[in-house]
Predict the structure of Fur family transcriptional regulator, zinc uptake regulator.
Amino acid sequence: MTTPMLTKNQTLVFDVLTKAESPLSAYTILDKLRDQGFRAPLQVYRALDKLLEYGVVHRLESINSFVACAHPDENCHSHGLVAFAICESCGQVIEFHDHEVDHRLMDWLKSQKFKAEKSTIEIRGHCAKCAA
Amino acid sequence: MTTPMLTKNQTLVFDVLTKAESPLSAYTILDKLRDQGFRAPLQVYRALDKLLEYGVVHRLESINSFVACAHPDENCHSHGLVAFAICESCGQVIEFHDHEVDHRLMDWLKSQKFKAEKSTIEIRGHCAKCAA
DNA sequence: TCGCACACGTTATAGCATAACGCAATTGAT
DNA sequence: ATCAATTGCGTTATGCTATAACGTGTGCGA
Ligand SMILES: [Zn+2]
Ligand SMILES: [Zn+2]
Ligand SMILES: [Zn+2]
Ligand SMILES: [Zn+2]
């Protein structure tokens, strides 16, 4: 997916996520953008929908939050799965890709004739710094 | 985790999930149990918390729903990750385990000194029957 | 000019989850 | 026997997450 020009709201939301050090919930984003004129959740959700569609933002299902893509320039997303390690102490997220995991999962799905469309791989725990 | 005797509410919730053909949301479970005296969401959530703790029920993060474990007798859960293929047409869920995927993910996490505690692997798409 | 697509704003509502209180039964130590 | 701690339960209220439904304005090609 080639990313078209972002609209004003999309840019605001994307910038907030890019500057954040941890994933943010839609409502947290809303609060951060009230000074820029945001008033309602839909303004955030509509922007997020587009950013997700363009692949420049990921949704973390297990914590109802959103992060900017950590590898916006690689085209891994088009042919591979994305995985996340989420620290429950500091909130830091590491986004990673592993083709071996991809292929293994895809093979299994293929063996079941299951047509995959979206995937979620999220590991929660404690990062090196917080586990000490 | 050895599963202790279930309480009345836990049994009711577990039975509903066991009989269901698809994952159920907590509020759907609540509705199904109103005739048995359930009145409030907390009655469901408290039972679910215990059932999740005992490992006899899984939570599907990507669809805010719950399913009975499909392999209650295997002890895979103690040493392996659990994955789900979720059909977005018929709602059917296939629970599966793949040690190769486990090891690969665990190795990566180890290389990052990340201490994993909970994992979520969910693939959404269309099952063989619905993809036709 | 008309029709359409798209972004946007606003209000209201739906859906998911937990806080906080109090009561009752159980257990296990003193 | 008594007390304290634990656990489950019921209820009310609240908070967080997400979408429905309506209307506006703008740009653009037929
Ligand atoms: Zn990414
Ligand atoms: Zn951390
Ligand atoms: Zn299971
Ligand atoms: Zn299906």
